[in-house]
Design goal:
By secondary structure, this protein is mainly beta. It has one helix and 13 strands, in the order αβββββββββββββ. The N terminus is likely disordered.
């Protein structure tokens, strides 16, 4: 009787060892291992409602290869013009064609040109620049000699619903204020009240003066 119990126990031990050995060669089943973090693989989070979302790198109007006019969506439909100060519908013979030149991270140097009329000066660009002499909290945009390394000439352009855009310098958005025109202003808790529509005016093929 003792011999039979010993043989049965030995056989059970051998069988158990064989199962362990066999299991060591098998890959873990699906779902085993470290749990996947919540939300992983769900893609890029959607920005909160009311917040500007980044533009895509495939937007031809922001490629630096197209000339555009800009119109304030909430305005009278007059195009923006850079003649000393950036304004809308000034009709002062200023520059009304713009080329946002990408410099990375949704930031642009915005070049301004006159109409194409074979006048050499119209092909030599000015650039948008924050007027450093203005007093906070409301700043204006003036024309300046283009300098991609100058931080006051770097603007962020953000896509909005309906094919429109918001324009920002650091934490200030380009907004229209009655009596003051176009200014750069921090929104705080206020909603974005001014957006712009860009109209394609053809390829950017100017030959600036040397």
């Amino acid at each position: 009787m003792i011999r039979m119990k010993w043989v049965a126990g030995a056989a059970l031990l051998a069988c158990t060892g064989a199962l362990v050995a066999c299991g060591a060669d098998k890959a873990p089943t699906a779902g085993a291992g470290t749990p996947t973090p919540s939300g992983a693989g769900a893609g890029t989070p959607t920005p909160p409602a009311g917040k500007p979302s980044p533009t895509t790198a495939t937007d031809p109007l922001l490629s630096g290869k197209r000339e555009i006019s800009m119109l304030r969506v909430q305005g009278s439909g007059d195009a923006l013009e850079l003649s000393g100060r950036l304004e809308e519908g000034g009709d002062t013979g200023g520059r009304v064609l713009f080329v946002p030149v990408p410099i990375g991270d949704d930031r642009y140097v915005i070049k301004a040109f006159g109409t194409k009329d074979d006048h050499p000066a119209n092909d030599d660009p000015s650039c948008w620049a924050v007027n450093a002499l203005d007093i906070e909290p409301e700043l204006t945009i003036d024309a300046a000699v283009c300098d991609v390394d100058d931080p006051i000439q770097r603007f962020t352009i953000l896509a909005q619903a309906g094919g429109t855009y918001a324009i920002r310098s650091e934490n200030r958005f380009l907004q229209h204020l009655a009596g003051n025109g176009l200014i750069l202003k921090e929104l705080g808790n206020a909603p974005l009240g001014t957006t712009f529509r860009f109209v394609d005016k053809g390829p950017h093929d100017r030959e600036p003066l040397n």
